Input
Amino acid sequence: MHNPQIHKLKQLFELSLTLSGDPIEIFRHAAKMIGEMLEVKVVCLSEIQGGQLNFLAVYIDGEIYSNAGVCSLAITPCATVEQSRDIRVYDRVAELFPEATFLKDHNAFAYCGFPSLDNQGKVVAVTCLLDDKPHDFTLEDQSILRIIGQRIGMEIERKHNIEENERANDILRINEDRLHQATSASGIGVFDQTYCNKSIYSSPELRKLCGWGSNERVTFKTFISSLYPKDRKRVIEAIRHAQNPYEGGLIDIEHRIIHRDGEVRWLVTRAQTFFETNELISNAIRIVGAVSDITERKRSEEDIHFLANFDPLTRLPNRIQLNYHFKYAISLAKRNKGQLALMFLDLDHFKDINDSLGHSLGDSVLIELAKRLSLLLRAEDTVTRLGGDEFILLLPGVDQLGAAHVAQKLLDTIATPYLIDHQNLTLTASIGIALYPEDGEDLETLSKSADTAMYRAKREGRQYYRFFTPEMQKQSERNLQLVNALRHALEYEQLYLHYQPQVAIHNSQIIGAEALLRWQHPTLGMVLPEEFIPVAEESRLILPIGEWVLKTAIRQAKAWMNEGFPPMIMAVNLSAVQFRHPDLPELITRLLDEEGLPPEYLELELTEGVAMHNPKNAIAIMEKLHERGIRMSIDDFGTGYSSLSYLKKFKSYKLKIDQSFVRDIVTDPDDKAIVSAIINLAKSLGLQTIAEGVETVEQLMLLREQGCNEMQGYLFSKPLPVEQFSALLKENLKSLD
Ligand code: C2E
Ligand code: MG
Ligand code: MG
Output
């Protein structure tokens, strides 16, 4: 063998080993160098793995191959190298190891194999040199080959380390991928900060949650400036606590951030601080945590909170909020010996808007109204919608004068026309006011008082405000008593009718009768219609009662007719509730049919106020009644504000001049002028007139002079029970004879 080459080889080899990089490259390099320098035919550098020879690099006749296959170690001469852990040299090797086919394939005659050992002395690789002629390596050559073997061994170990690392990296990568997939699927962001570093590791998901750029350097400052300003202090406090080793190091906090897109989001951050502890102190060194977006949950919580505390339509606070605000206001008022006002506000005839224009328009009106109310009030005031068209206003620190001022402003604001869906609307409201401490000391009492005052305002003609008075309290208690008693009045037969004659002015002949309702209650005594009819109207008990009145009066008219009295008109008073009831025309026709009274003998008395409220609607109803042949008269005429244009369209037959004008007609020239004007007006419209409440001959004379057609009053007769009225009819009949 050529010693110099071997030495050169050793040097080159050592040089090449200093190179780092892919071990396979180094094996290829080594095999090539050995082959070229020693001029051998084949160099085969194989790793031993699980009883196999793994050909890492093979040099054959100047060509180099890597990862050239495997073969079983046991059948090859390399097995003897492994066993002896030393150089083995064979001639006629193909014959010696007939099963190792590669020897034959390469026509190998001489074999020299040397081992590579690892740290534990285990053979990890064998490099063999094959030739078709015998080798003549000296002992020194052999020891150099041994050294080369050792170097290859080191490289094998490096290869193992690299492989191990790669495997570990693969596992790490897989785990990281899994973690990333899991966190991104669940939307959880992760952060990790070692306190000695300024920058914070933040996962892609966290960056997405906060809107941070994917390559942006995230620091504590980045995080703090993302926090919603109002939550900043709280979060910093929580971090400070977590850095205290005595407080467990945990953070669990819900807070808001401002995403880079400007949107406010709710996050929950849960984190754990790690401490470094020596005998003396513990230091926070690292914090690791997870962050998730809870905006949706918070929004639904906010929605629930909103629904529980606010009116969804107008967005005004509801009764719960009112309670809360009231408690605060009253405690302040008590402490300061101050006052407060509670107002009950109810729209007048809001039902008409809903009925005629639809609920969605009604809703828009309420929304607009709520805005107006809120704008008018001070920040410390509360306006609450109780439902429907009812509102409660709480005005802390307001006295009677202030409340009156606010109430008037409210009425004015509400009365300003509304333009909704191209419709011009006007609204009015009635307001009841209760004051602390005079009218109550708790919300319930004050509400009741304000409600009572509001009802009074409504009764007094609406679009008013009224302060609560103790007299109202008595009144409302009385009303309650009446309603309860009135519920059973029909059933217990406490109701009956009186009839008051209506006579022709020129000859005092009875031409009709007005049916007037009477109520005799066993303990309440005789209750006047002026008192109980408004109560019946409010409770809608007037519907069954009114039907009974109509039926009884019609039956009576028919009875008198049957008794042979000359036909006369039966006048029946109709309340607004009855008048607006959609079934009214059918009801009356049915009752007339049942009793067999021709429709022209029935006259319905409508007060001027009822006819004039929503006159278009009134005209439509009157038309329907008129078509059925039923007469109508306008009762208490002169007290309402009739529009002449409407009056012309009303299908009424008669105007009943209100008794308040008749009363002083003789002494008061104004009243005389009014009565005269009404009579002339009626004449020009082709209507009859009847004067109510005629008590004196003087009044009668004057009315006759003015050309009034009929009269009704104590002068002729008080309202009478049936029998007395029958007697009067008989007398009247006689006077005709
Ligand atoms: P109204 O329809 O204007 O009835 C006339 C009222 O004047 C009656 O009072 C009658 O008794 C009273 N009156 C008649 N002549 C005189 C007089 O010369 N001097 C004085 N001072 N008063 C006279 P009443 O019966 O107390 O009824 C009061 C009101 O109650 C009625 O006024 C009417 O609006 C209402 N009302 C009575 N019955 C019914 C009914 O069945 N249904 C409805 N909805 N309302 C009714
Ligand atoms: Mg009447
Ligand atoms: Mg009247």
